[in-house]
Amino acid sequence: MELILNPYNLVLVVAGFIIVVLIVILINNLERTKQLRNEIIQLKRTIDEIDLQSRTLIQTDMELNKIQDELNKKIIALYALHRISRQVSSTLDENKIFSSIENSHLEDMGFEKALAFLWDDKKENFELVLNIGYEDKEIDSIVKRLDKDFYLKLMQEGKTASSISVSEETLIKSICDLFNIYFFVISPILPKEGRKGFLFVGTDDLSKTITQGDEDLINILANQIGQTLDNARLFEKTWLAQQELEKKVEERTKQLSTALEEIQAISKRKSEFISAVSHELRTPLTSIKGYASILLAEKLGNLPLAVKERLEKINRHTDELVNLVNGLLDISRIESGKIAMKFEPYKLSQIINEVLDLMGVQLKEKEIQLTTEISADSEDILVDCEQLKRVFINLIGNAIKFTPSKGKITIKSFSLDHQIQVDITDTGIGIPQDSLQVIFEEFYRVDNPINQQVKGTGLGLSLVKRIIEAHRGKIWVKSKLNEGSTFSFTLPKVI
Length: 495
Ligand code: ADP
Known about the structure:
This protein is of the alpha+beta class. Helices cover about 60% and strands about 15% of the residues. The structure holds adenosine-5'-diphosphate. Adenosine-5'-diphosphate binds near residues 394, 456 and 485.
């Protein structure tokens, strides 16, 4: 077939071509429209989802705000509880425990009314100890209508009751009516000892709600009050006991110082008396001795033998009496401070050697071996040399007197921190235990065969003790019967 290109055919071809192009475009557009519709549907869905999510978000945000508010309230309440607890526990006076609870703190805990009662066993009644938010008239009516059994049971069981924990509606209503509030928490106050009771807190604000947390907080506060009541009671007990003790100590001290003053006065009078008597005795004794000596010298004529013997006895006894009187006079003078000590630096060995020179004969007579171990001799000591010699003469003299022949005496001295110690030990007859305490008292002499034979005044150790004490030293004795004795004394290095 021959292709004839005429205008008609050309139009047809062009038209056909255009139609084809249009169809393709149409198909394309249809595809695109379908796609767009799908996308719109998808978009709508997404928008719906976003809408839902934003609503959820808003809801969650609101809830979060609510929780935040609640939390804030709880934190404020906790702070308030902390402040109340601190105030309550800072007092140890039972009366101040309840008055330290302040209205503002209670309000921070979400309550504007509070009452506390303690049970009085004798009166069988509740005593009001705290009132926040009630007038006197209201209190009278509350006290009158209070169901004692209910609160006593609560205390006995140690349970906390609140508008959310009490299940009986009638009970809640009667409590709310009684206290004129909408919400309440009642918690027992249970100290270990003493009066128990309960703490009531309430609010008449209907917009407030009570939670388990509120109940717990009031419970903690009531526990804290209970513990503080215990502390206050313990403190009161201790304080009273201490007061009692102080009173006793004071009384006893007064008694003792009065007794001491009396003893000192008696002792002073005794010293004065001894001093006066000794003085008075010395003069006639001197004359007696003088006359006896003149008579004995037969200056007034010859005397029969019997008279001479009697006169010799008078002479001897007068010497003994003069000794005794001198001893007494020395003791009373040292005691009353009339003999002032002349403290000068000396070496201990020097004093001991001088004394031993004097006692050499006696030691030889009894064949007693005396050894010295003076290790505290490097430094001088401040002593009254003459008085200290009397100490050694008396102690070594006694050791010789009460030690059988061929016995041993040791003199030891050693240095302590601020003092030196001297021990004079013998292997003599010893001293019975019951005499050790009284051996330094005037006129005390142990009843033993040596004392029965040899005369003594019983004043030597008493004098020694007074001299050592005048040097601010101490003296004591240790002894075993039939084994020996050790007399020890200390002397301070510096007076
Ligand atoms: P006196 O020696 O004059 O009796 P003292 O006061 O010196 O008086 O001694 C009192 C008593 O202490 C003595 O009588 C004696 O019984 C006892 N006594 C003292 N020193 C010793 C000693 N070294 N051993 C045993 N007894 C002693």
